[in-house]
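Amino acids appear as letters; backbone shape is given numerically. Here is one record.
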Amino acid sequence: EQGHIIQGGFVEGLSDGAGGIASLAIALLCLCGGLVSMTRLMKVFLMGKARRYIIMATRVNDYVAMLIGALITIIVQSSSVTTSALTPLAGIGILPLKKMLPLTLGANIGTTVTALIASIAAYTHDAIHIALCHLFFNIIGILVWFPLPTMRRVPLHAARLLGLYASYFRVFPAFYVMMTFVAG
């Protein structure tokens, strides 16, 4: 039919709005279920010998940790994959929050490499311009929030506070995401 976005699949019989909502709900359930399962599996696997190696890796300099985060992200071509793999480790206490920050900042730098590669492939002025804006935005953010330990405390304190709220109010993370990214 013309005028309809959904033309096939498991939500074919639904209207565009209902099909979109049903698809979103199923995707969110799968995402949450996958993250919960991954956290539980990592807790089981990492309580043995691997935990010792991860703890040794967390003892490197913060700038080396940032480089490690960038390299991991360059290899997997996704900062989301990097942070999604590291977040459960921080959640179960293997990766300290103070070390998660430089790894995440490195992942943010690493993801700009994907944009730079894509912009070079497109080889247009606008594409390269946007990719460089993405890179410099991340670098400036790191220069503002990372070099001084007093400035690092701001995002670390915010993360601890949000984690505390989430531990008491299970609906808080969904509320926070909705208010920050959807309603904001």
